[in-house]
Write a structure and sequence with these properties.
By secondary structure, the chain is an alpha/beta fold. Helix content is 44%, strand content 18%. The chain has an 8-stranded parallel β-barrel, surrounded by 6 helices. It has a two-stranded antiparallel sheet with strand order 5-6. Helix 6 links the parallel strand 7 and strand 8.
């Protein structure tokens, strides 16, 4: 994949498909395909029913030579000193950087299941402390003392510090005011499911100007012509009455970005001729899709790039054909 030098590209780790006995062959296949196409790394999700992202990271490291894991780290699920130990161990074993995608949200059901009592703002405050502890444990020679609102450590000792080039980059997901403030404080990359590019520029990029690098997570449905792309998109993501009701209900619940996307999805489905909320409207995830011919999708990505985006996390790219279509878009983007 001819990755443009101005934008790094991550894809998303796929584990088991329905009917598969286990997910290692699928993960190995997408890991090697992504590496062959020059992708920087793969995002490993965190949800209660998903495979553990740290074990997914270990598997993809074993299957590839250069690919970097982008591990979703949920503070309520793993103490920061354990995360630091995992990062140090995987780095020592494979000689590769382990990036962190720090998340603070979850479904209301998952938060209740683990007895989470913090509100969204407090969870971002905890996330900032989490990152601080992890970084200190991976960079400082001596024992670490820390006295915060959420974590307290006294004389905590771990392994030798990592070399600077092997220290993790921290991605922070979210779009709320608390998320933006925390991203400015601790993130290397602020990442979100973006709104259409003009709204993204006003509501997300400008508030973070001068802060961390910007990243977006989107899906691409691109083909040589727009007609082919829209036919493929509408065939893949079909709305139902139940999915439309679910979308309408999401306008008032969930995270900040979920409410934003629900509002977009119920007000319309296509914006700027390329940005499409079809996956959301079909209740097939919360990923915005960019749909069109290669040049059209590349042109839309160029507008995000002009707004400051430097990291692209692809959410629906798993087969060689998917990577080939994405590569054609990125080749156009590089030429543009």
């Amino acid at each position: 994949m001819p990755v443009t030098p101005e934008i790094e590209v991550y894809a998303t780790a796929r584990t088991a498909r329905p009917g598969e006995r286990h997910g290692l062959p699928a993960l190995t296949e997408i890991s090697r395909t992504a590496e062959a196409h020059g992708v920087t790394g793969l995002l490993a999700f965190y949800h209660h029913r998903n495979p553990d992202p740290w074990l997914v990271a270990a598997a993809l490291l074993g299957a590839t030579e250069r690919l970097l894991p982008l591990v979703a780290a949920q503070p309520y699920a793993l103490p920061p000193f354990t995360a630091a130990q995992m990062i140090h161990t995987l780095t020592a074993l494979h000689g590769r950087r382990i990036d962190l995608n720090l998340i603070t949200g979850a479904t209301g059901a998952e938060l209740r299941q683990v007895g989470e009592r913090l509100d969204a703002t407090e969870r971002y405050a905890r996330a900032a402390e989490y990152v601080t502890v992890v970084r200190r444990l991976l960079t400082e020679e001596g024992p670490v003392d820390f006295d915060g609102a959420h974590y307290r450590f006294e004389g905590l000792r771990m392994n030798a510090p990592l070399a600077p080039e092997l220290r993790p980059r921290v991605f922070l997901a979210g779009s709320s005011p608390a998320a933006l403030a925390t991203a400015r404080e601790v993130a290397d990359v602020a990442v979100t499911h973006p709104e259409p590019v003009d709204r993204f520029t006003a509501d997300y990029a400008r508030p973070l100007a001068g802060g961390p690098r910007l990243g977006i997570r989107v899906g691409l449905v691109a083909r040589p012509t727009a007609a082919e792309a829209w036919a493929a998109a509408r065939d893949e993501y079909r709305e139902t009455r139940a999915s439309r009701l679910t979308t309408a209900l999401r306008r008032t619940g969930g995270s900040d970005w979920s409410r934003r996307l629900a509002a977009l999805a119920t007000d319309g489905d296509v914006y700027d001729g390329v940005y499409w909320t079809g996956a959301y409207r079909a209740d097939r995830g919360t990923l915005p899709l960019l749909v069109g011919g290669y040049e059209e999708v590349a042109g839309y990505l160029a507008r995000y790039r002009a707004a400051g985006v430097r990291v692209l996390v692809l959410g629906n790219t798993s087969t060689p054909e998917d990577f080939a279509h994405a590569g054609a878009v990125l080749a156009e983007l590089r030429r543009g």
